[in-house]
Amino acid sequence: SCVRSRSATQLDISDDAGDGKAFTLDDILWSVSPEDEDFASQQTCMERLGTDMARDLLQGRNACLIAFGPSGSGKTYSILGGKDDHRGLLPRVASDLFAR
Question: Which of 19, 27, 37, 78 has the fewest CB atoms within 10 Å around its CB?
């Protein structure tokens, strides 16, 4: 199967026979390869998701963070990340909360 991002909100998924479906979403964070034009780094994820989440938490709202996808697709890495610039969304949100 093949997954392609056509834009920041459109995703195409097709099988080996070429049959597929197009999906329109609120936002797509594409992180397949840093060389991709629309690559979303861990910092990009923080800017597009985490900043608003931290703000809402400090205003007393609940927040829920869900990562969905098949095994090996990078869910844990997106949420927890690695070291330094590769920290995931959760450590970045926590740092932002304590910095405010």
Answer: 37
